[in-house]
Structures are given as structure tokens and as C-alpha cells.
Design goal:
It is built from 19 helices and 18 strands. The protein is α/β, with parallel strands linked by helices. Strand 7, helix 8 and strand 8 form a beta-alpha-beta unit.
Length: about 600
């Protein structure tokens, strides 16, 4: 008779194997999810200290599960997270796993991040999300896989509840970039503080202070995470705010006042430009005399045919802004919500009751008449801040990137006639743009001779340019500023130091600066493109196209909002391009004659 015992034992052994495999999968997912979360939190470390930028973090983990190295992108124009992590890990990176919160988007023109991972000898790369911008999306993944590395993407190659939660953290840390990639408005956050009975001020308009000191300190941190803070005219008239981050240094968001009639006071804290600039957006033709007054104080005025939150946000999207912080009253808040430009809300609720039939509320009329029409927040969080309660959540979900943002190659496969860029004009602005390596903010150190003829290394073209505003000025403050610029951690920081000093102490700027600044920029650009062959190749490859630095507000170096700018940076690059092409032609002719 056939015995069933061996079969029963086999089934038992198989079930044990399955259980063990499931246990190993859970353990592996937990390990991957944990390191991806760590990379995402690293990526967020520079928030508030630099202007918003794509947030990258990288963690190198050895096969035994130990962290060998890590790094994060501090600001645009600084060393890539992957380069820092590989450098930190040293030989321990060989055979290790690299955890990235987001697919690398090399803006340096030479695939720096991918090269670092390959040269470091990592065996496997785990990526939290694909890059949202279509000119980067999928490029690094393909490059790494083509070199034989195992690349696992969360949500695609790796799926589980643990993985899903980790990927969510990656999406949140780059929410502004995702919104920029999928729409034409910056990521916008509405913040307000209200009493328990829903008032943002007393009937008299008095509002100091609803929230506690701890809450107000947190607001300063939230402000610093944005490119700009926006308020309406009522807030300026009633509160006379300063809208500073007040963190003692680092990034200071631009201040934006949105006023249709320009019924604003002649004297206001926002017109003080010593610390940070202010932009007033208004209806075309509004109070021209007041516009001249603002201009005399250094305030930039931008006119719109029809002033509304959607058009204003689209303008600041084109200006390169990733994130905007709204601290307006109820009327403007309602208009912004109705326009669909608000993505997230931070509501500080204080345990106070003020009452008052005419006391203002945080959000004005939205045209809703039934509770079923109310907007429900998504991913709601509750946080105790001193005696206050902070309630935060999204008004709309983060866009699903996969179906809406195809890569350049995917688009070309569907329709070969589609070109991702206009061939006759090439725009560049931020370092993460398709031609971002052309920018004076790109992370390419240059060596230039000083006054004594000795070569000095500068971290970027912008470092060199800003410092030379003060070269040769016989004043200790000027020399101190020069040294601060030279040691600045990023081109952004160098520009902030130089521009701020130029506003506050114009007497420290070398007298001949206006006549020589173009030559200073050109010599630095020539050094940069002559030093890095891949950059000169990129520049030459643009032959036949007009190069435009797409800054809407810099009317000297940039092209301006509607092409009214002088575009001197683009002009200098085109001049340099012509020189390189001419040199190449002369070299070819010489070679032919020699033969």
C-alpha cells in the first residue's frame, strides 16, 4: 500500500519554505522602505535654508545593512546627493545598495549622479519615484540598467503596504516639483490662524495675537520653505506685516502683494527692501502715480489685464517658483481656493473664543449652500503646538505622474514629429531646466587669476561674478563681503550676499562696475565652457538657435516676461558659441592643409 506520509511531509516542508520566503520578503521590504524614508528625510534637510529646489537624498547601505554614506542636495548649483554619499562611503560603496528618494535629474550636462553611482561600484539602486520633469524622467533609470545595475522602483518593481507608505513620503517631499511638472502653477499652501469659533480677528480688525508664540515660530519655518509669501491689500492696510522668515540668515522668500485697486498705504513695512524684495501685482492701469512711488522705493510692480489668482500663479510658475505661501484674508483665500490654485492648508486653531457678528473668518464666500458641497481635506494631520492645534491637509491629491507626464522618448515613439523643445529658441533659467547647465548658477567650479595673477578657484560663475562687484574696493566691509561670497555654500547664497550688500551699501560697489560687469561675466563663462568639454559640446549643439535666459524679472541678464529684457546672458553665450564654432572650423582647415 502506498504511504501518504512522505507526501504529507513534503506539503509541510513546502509551506515552511513559503512562510520563510514571505518572511524574507517582508524583512526586505521593511529594509528598503526604511532606507528610502531615510533618503526622503535627508532630502528635506535644506528646506528653509535655501530657495525651493528638487529635493534629492541618497543613502548607501552595505550588504550587512549598515549605512556607509549619505548626502543630500543643499541647493541648486551644489554637489549632487549621490556624489556626496559615494564620497562619504568610500570603498564601502562597492557591492552596496544606493537608496534614492527620487530618480536623479542631472543638470550638469555630464550625468554626475549616475556616474558617481557607477564609479562607486554599487550593485543595486532603489528609487522612491521617477523624476517628474519629462526631460529627466526615465533617463537615469535606463542609464543605470544599461550598465548592468539592478534598479528597483517603488510602486513598479517593489510593491507592498510598507513600500507604498515609503513612496508616499518621497512624493510629499517633492510635492512642489510634482505640481510644477503637472500644472502651470506653483505648489500653494494657505495658512491661517483662527479662534475656536472660527475668527481670524476681532470685529475691530485686531488680530495680535490669535496663536501662541510657538505656533508663530513654526509659521516662520513654513514661510522659509517657500519661494514667496503672498498677501492681499486688506492685510497690508490692517496689519502692516513684514513677512520675513526671521531665522537669522539663509533663504528669505519674496513678498508678494496682490491688490486690484492699489489702494495701499504710501508707507509700509513691505516697502522696506533692505532685507528682502517685494512684488506688487495689480490690474493694468491701476494708480499709475502710486506705481511710480513704489518703483522709486525699489518695489517691482507687475500688471495683469485681469487680476486673478490663477493668472498670477501661472506668472510665478514661469518665473521659476516652486512653492508659494498664502497668508491672506478671507476674501482672497476664497478666490484662490475657487481658482483651484491652493494645494494644501495649514490651520492653527487657538483655544479662544472672540465672538462678533462681523468678525472675519479665514475663508470668504465660496458659493456653497449645502454641507454636501464642503471640500474635504485629504491626508489630514493633527499636531499639538503649545496650546494650539495645527490641522493640515491637502485640498486636492498630488497628481498621478505616470499617465500625465510621459518621457521625451516615450512621446517620440508615439509621434516622431513631436519635438520637446522649440528648435529656433532655446530657453534656460533654473539649473534643472533641459539646458540648465548653460546657467551661471550651474555647479561647475572655475579657476580665474586674481589681482596678483595667481589662479583662484571659484565654486561657480555666479560666485566669481558677485565677488567682483567688490574687488579692489579699499574698505574692510567690502573685503569681508567678498570673502563671504567666495565661501558661500551655493551660487544662490553667493547671489543673495552680493545683491543684498549692493542694495544696502551701494557705496561699496566698485565705481566702474556697470561698465565692466558684462566683461566679468563673459570671462567667467568662457573659462567655464573652455574647462568642461561636455559643456562646450552642449553649447555648440545649440547652433542655429537663439539662446534666451528666461528670467521674467531680470531685464538685464534675462529675456523678461514678454521679451522686453536685454538677455545679455543669452547674448554672451551665443557670442561664445560662435567663437567655439570658428575655432573648430579653423582647426579642421589646418588639419586638412597639413594632410
Amino acid at each position: 500500500m502506498l504511504s501518504l506520509t512522505p507526501i504529507a511531509n513534503t506539503f509541510s516542508f513546502s509551506s515552511i519554505i513559503c512562510k520563510c520566503k514571505a518572511s524574507l520578503d517582508i524583512h526586505s521590504d521593511a529594509l528598503d522602505a526604511g532606507y528610502i524614508r531615510r533618503a526622503a528625510r535627508l532630502a528635506d534637510k535644506s528646506a528653509g535654508f535655501t530657495s525651493p529646489h528638487p529635493n534629492f537624498g541618497c543613502v548607501i547601505a552595505t550588504p550587512s545593512g549598515n549605512v556607509a554614506g549619505e548626502g543630500y542636495l543643499y541647493a541648486q548649483g551644489t554637489s549632487a546627493a549621490e556624489v556626496q554619499a559615494i564620497t562619504s562611503a568610500g570603498e564601502l560603496s562597492r557591492g552596496a545598495t544606493a537608496y534614492l528618494n527620487m530618480e536623479p535629474g542631472d543638470c550638469d550636462g555630464d550625468s554626475t549622479a549616475v556616474s558617481a553611482l557607477l564609479q562607486g561600484g554599487v550593485k543595486r539602486v532603489v528609487i522612491g519615484m521617477r523624476h517628474p520633469l519629462q526631460h529627466f524622467r526615465g533617463n537615469a533609470v535606463r542609464a543605470l540598467r544599461s550598465q548592468g545595475l539592478q534598479v528597483d522602483l517603488l510602486g513598479e518593481d517593489l510593491t507592498s503596504k510598507l513600500i507604498e507608505d515609503a513612496q508616499k513620503e518621497c512624493l510629499l517631499v517633492n510635492a512642489p516639483l510634482i505640481c510644477r511638472a503637472s500644472s502651470r502653477v506653483p505648489f500653494s499652501v494657505l495658512k491661517y490662524a483662527m479662534t475656536l469659533d472660527g475668527k481670524i480677528a476681532a470685529s475691530t480688525g485686531h488680530a495680535w495675537w490669535i496663536s501662541c508664540k510657538k505656533s508663530r515660530s513654526l509659521v516662520f519655518e513654513l514661510r522659509a520653505r517657500s519661494d514667496a509669501i503672498i498677501v492681499g491689500g486688506n492685510t497690508v492696510r490692517r496689519d502692516n506685516p513684514r513677512l520675513t522668515a526671521r531665522h537669522g540668515g539663509g533663504h528669505m522668500p519674496m513678498r508678494i502683494v496682490m491688490s486690484q485697486s492699489l489702494d495701499l498705504p504710501e508707507e509700509a513695512n513691505l516697502w522696506d527692501m533692505s532685507e528682502v524684495s517685494t512684488i506688487v501685482v495689480t490690474q493694468r492701469g491701476a494708480r499709475k502715480s502710486f506705481q511710480k512711488l513704489l518703483a522709486s522705493k525699489g518695489v517691482e510692480v507687475v500688471e495683469f489685464d485681469i487680476l486673478n489668482p490663477r493668472d498670477v500663479m501661472e506668472y510665478f510658475h514661469d518665473r521659476g517658483y516652486l512653492s508659494v505661501f498664502w497668508e491672506c484674508g478671507g476674501t482672497l483665500a476664497a478666490s484662490a481656493i475657487s481658482s483651484g490654485v491652493i494645494h494644501k492648508v495649514y490651520a492653527f486653531v487657538a483655544p479662544k473664543i472672540i465672538g462678533g457678528k462681523n468678525a472675519p473668518s479665514p475663508v470668504g464666500d465660496l458659493g456653497m449652500v449645502e454641507m454636501s458641497q464642503a471640500i474635504n481635506l485629504i491626508d489630514v494631520c493633527y499636531q499639538q503646538v503649545g496650546p494650539d492645534m495645527l490641522v493640515s491637509g491637502f485640498l486636492q491629491p498630488l497628481p498621478d505622474m505616470a499617465p500625465t507626464i510621459p518621457s521625451r522618448e516615450e512621446t517620440f515613439v508615439v509621434d516622431p514629429t513631436v519635438s520637446p523643445y522649440e528648435s529656433s529658441i532655446i530657453f534656460f533659467y533654473k539649473t534643472w531646466d533641459p539646458y540648465g547647465a548653460l546657467s551661471n548658477f550651474s555647479p561647475h567650479p572655475i579657476q580665474m587669476p586674481d589681482e596678483n595673477g595667481d589662479n583662484v578657484t571659484w565654486s561657480s560663475v555666479e560666485h566669481y561674478y558677485q565677488a567682483h562687484k567688490f574687488v579692489g574696493v579699499d574698505d574692510t566691509s567690502a573685503q569681508d563681503c567678498l570673502e563671504r561670497i567666495k565661501s558661500a555654500k551655493s551660487p544662490e547664497e553667493a547671489a543673495r550676499i552680493g545683491r543684498s550688500m549692493q542694495r544696502q551699501r551701494p557705496d561699496l560697489i566698485r565705481p566702474e562696475w556697470d561698465n565692466m560687469k558684462i566683461d566679468v561675466m563673459y570671462s567667467a563663462l568662457k573659462c567655464k565652457f573652455s574647462t568642461y568639454p561636455h559643456l562646450s559640446s552642449m553649447l555648440v549643439s545649440t547652433a542655429g538657435s537663439v539662446l534666451v535666459e528666461a528670467s521674467p524679472h531680470d531685464l538685464f541678464w534675462g529675456g523678461g516676461r514678454e521679451g522686453e529684457g536685454l538677455n545679455y546672458l543669452g547674448r554672451l553665450l551665443m557670442k561664445l558659441r560662435s567663437e567655439f564654432i570658428e575655432e573648430s572650423s579653423s582647426s579642421s582647415e589646418s588639419s586638412s592643409l597639413a594632410v
